[in-house]
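Following up on my earlier thread - several people asked me to post the actual chain instead of describing it. Fair enough. Here it is, all 312 residues.
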Amino acid sequence: MSLDTRPPRQRPARQVATPRERDEARGLPSRSLLVALVLACVALMVVDSTGGDESPVAPVRRLVGEVLGPAQAGVATVLEPIVGIPDALRTNAALREDLAVAEDLNRTYEQELLKDPYDANRRRELEGLAAMANDSGYALAPARVIGYGSAQTFSSTVTIDAGSDAGLRPDMTVLNPDGLVGRILEVTSHTATVLLVIDPASSVGGRVGDNMENGMVEGQGGLATDDPLELRLLDNDVVPERGQAVVTWGSEGGAPYVSGVPIGEVAKVFEELRLGTYRATLDPYVDFTSLDLVGVVVPSGGEGVIEPGAFE
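Reply from S.P.:
Thanks for posting it. Predicted structure:
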């Protein structure tokens, strides 16, 4: 039996790769090349910054700008809408908020415009009542017409928004800035019913023109009547003249009518041959189809009353 005396086979030693070999295996430039490139870039920046327009790098820079400039512009054109989307969204939200505010303001202005004629008319009527109080010397309690009498009642009445709580009572004179409206028929605590002078049940003593001839002014049927007021003078020999003004002559104690309130003017004159008398129709100063603010003649000193001279 023989023994193998040969030495054991040894494995070859493993070789270790150098850093340069590892970079080359990865496809990367060598570290020395990178260092050289960095130093070259730094040198070019120094030369370019100190040379200004005469820098040796300037022609290269211009060439690169001419080549890459159009490409950059094209890319910017394509990307600008996309990049601006967030700002556009924020801008649209702000615009919507501004639009909502503008619409609210517009509605407010429209309401003010619609209300403006009403407020202007009310101001004019208040000023007119103040002028009437100053001219007549009567204290007036202002009230607003809130309804007309029903046609089924065959009477010409209106309802006002003041009653006994405001010191009103039946047989008080009611007027507006243009003239005589009527007299109070009945009251509740907060309202009153006014019989208009154009109603057939109404009869008012009147004085005519400069001669102050007395007569009776009677209603002739209401709002739809062409000649709603008729005048008959007490002196049958006196002939009324067209255009003469007629005012109240007044009742004892000022009820139901105070004196000196304008009623209307003579419009037509008729001779009644059989009776040997004259009668006339009047155009009332008051427009009874558009009554709004009125004044009730009340004693002075009441709360909320328009006193003579108060607005002078």
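The CA atoms of residues 215 and 233 lie 4 Å apart. That should answer part of your original question.
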